[in-house]
Structures are given as structure tokens and as C-alpha cells.
Amino acid sequence: MGVISEIEDQILKILRADDLHAGVKIGSLPLGRNSERIFTFGRAAVWVCYAGSRYGKPQTTSLHVQSRSMRWSVLVLALNYRGDVEAADDALPLLEAVIDSLAGEEVGGNRLSLETDGLIETGKPGIVGYEAMFALDAYLRR
């Protein structure tokens, strides 16, 4: 198992350990928003997917290290048959619970930091979604 999948498993474990809300589907979504699985949930879902890394310039010290910021997209979706306003009323507290669960948590020896969060377009009536982007900074020996 690689570093990315191990970190993803740890993030999922944190989310599952916290009592987000009953009936919330929590899982991995390797293809992100491009996955057909994104809308396969009952009342609400929290999906985690690796969103890539940013690399810093290699340091020309005797240690030969390079910074790496791994990014994780956490998608929060809620469905309410009454409409988008009601779905947003369900999704926003769930987004806040996800941020509370993950921001500052230690994963793989480093702490997750919240980079951004915001509303995403779902294109589905009655489904409202938010995305929170988390970063995990590390240093690689090169």
C-alpha cells in the first residue's frame, strides 16, 4: 500500500470515528467529481479523494530535501426532496462537522490544514454540495 492510500485510509478512519450524523455515507471517491458513484447515497455523503500534490524547489543543502504538499478534496453532499434550500440546511452543518473533525488532525506524522472550502455545483435538483480542500505538508529526501 502506498503513502497516498494509507493517508486516505487514516482520513476516512477519523471521519468514521467522529459522530458526524446518522445516515451519512462516508467513503473514498478516487475519481472525485468525475465518478458516477458521487450521487449514490441516501440522505448525505462525505467523499474523500486525493487531489494531487504541490512540490517545492529542491533544497540544495546537504540533506537534499524537497517540500511536498499533498492535497485532499472532501466532498460533502446532502439530498433533500423538498429542495435546494433544505438540502443546504442539511449540508452546511455537515461541512462544519467535517472541518472540525479534520483540521489540525495528525495524519502520517503531520497535521492536516484547511486550505479552502466552498459551494460546488451538483447539477442535480435537491442536492447541495460543498468541497473542503485539506493539505498535508511533508518533506521528501531527494
Total helical elements: 2
Q: Could you tell me the mean pLDDT?
A: 88
Q: What is the succession of H and E elements?
A: HEEEHEEE
Oligomer: single chain
Per CATH, which architecture? Answer: 2-Layer Sandwich
What is the CATH homology-level superfamily?
Phage tail protein-like
Percent range for helical residues?
10-25%
Q: pLDDT below 50 for ≥5 consecutive residues: which ranges? A: none
State the end-to-end distance.
21 Å
Tell me what you see in this structure.
It is a single chain. By secondary structure, this protein is an alpha+beta fold. The protein has a single domain, classed as 2-Layer Sandwich (STM4215-like), CATH 3.30.2000. The protein is built from two helices and six strands; from the N terminus they run αβββαβββ. It has a six-stranded mixed β-sheet with strand order 1-2-3-6-5-4. The longest helix has 19 residues, at 84-102. The radius of gyration is 16 Å and the shape is elongated. The model has no long low-confidence stretch (mean pLDDT 88).
